[in-house]
Amino acid sequence: MSGETFDDRDGLIWFNGDWVDWRDARVHVLTHGLHYGSCVFEGERMYSGKIFELRAHTERLLYSAKTLGFDIPYSADEIDAACMAACEKNGIVNGYIRPVAWRGSEMMGVSAQANTINLAVAAWDWPSYFSPELRKKGIRLETSKWRRPAPDSAPVHAKAAGLYMICTLSKHAAEANGCQDALMLDYRGYVAEATGANIFICFGDDKLHTPTPDCFLDGITRQTVIRLAKARGIEIVERHILPDELNDATEIFLTGSAAEVTPVGQIDNLTFTPGKITHWMIEDYENAVGKAPESAAAE
């Protein structure tokens, strides 16, 4: 896949019920989803031929669309089938799946009640989001100047494209300073999440602390890790966490469909060492999803 761009590669994309050549899966420049952010999406992973938590992702896609005021014209069963078929058509056994729904181009303006609702599903090979070396020692984060918005100012519980604008700005700024991701605070100044992943923190008390998801996504991977931690007898503490509390943190890791379970080695000037709870969660998550060890997957 080296050297390929995402608009120029071999394969097929499911597009409104038809199979379209990858290079021909295009929309008009006046599409409402491009101009006004009326677009929702999902990020899913397939491991050993099975999409992890497929129905949960599909249900969230439908919920996100409804939150933005439109209904996707396909059932959950049809969307699930399209996701599986996209993997089969493209020969994906371990990879990433991207369903995306958006308002079309019949009306141009803020109002768009008459616009067609489109749905596409693409799937491609995609290894771990961060390199095995980074995942071993932990990635570097930089606190962003941008904050997650309040629930009364944006549809914060939808996986909506427009909400990721500040994530891109935050991640670009962090990468320019040699970091791999950014830590985002919420509108009150509490620790919220990374740009596309939830965060868990240990304070040396064999508990896992994680921000209350009251203004950002309660991620599907986050929910999985909480279940896995509880199965090990680890107490989960969901609460508002102030940035200054990170001074006392001993382990920090991120969770997400793309990030999976990724240790954090540094936030700004603070450093952390992945410990037993982080390693437990990495191991338990990989077992839960059926992921092969990275050394074996690379062979």
Characterize the structure shown.
It contains 8 helices and 16 strands. Helices cover 27% and strands 29% of the residues. Helix 6 packs across helix 7 (276-289). Mean pLDDT is 94; it is low at 295-299. The longest helix has 14 residues, at 54-67. The strands form 3 sheets. Strands 1, 2, 3, 4, 5, 6 and 7 form a 7-stranded antiparallel β-sheet that branches. By secondary structure, the protein is α+β, with helices and mostly antiparallel strands.
Please render the helix and strand layout as text.
Layout: E1 12-15, E2 18-21, H1 32-36, E3 39-41, E4 44-47, E5 50-51, H2 54-67, H3 76-89, E6 95-103, E7 117-125, H4 132-137, E8 139-148, H5 165-176, E9 181-186, E10 191-194, E11 198-202, E12 207-211, H6 220-231, E13 235-239, E14 251-256, E15 260-267, E16 270-271, H7 276-289, H8 294-297
Parallel strand pairs: 8-9, 8-15, 12-13
Antiparallel strand pairs: 1-2, 1-7, 3-6, 4-5, 4-6, 6-7, 9-10, 11-14, 14-15, 15-16
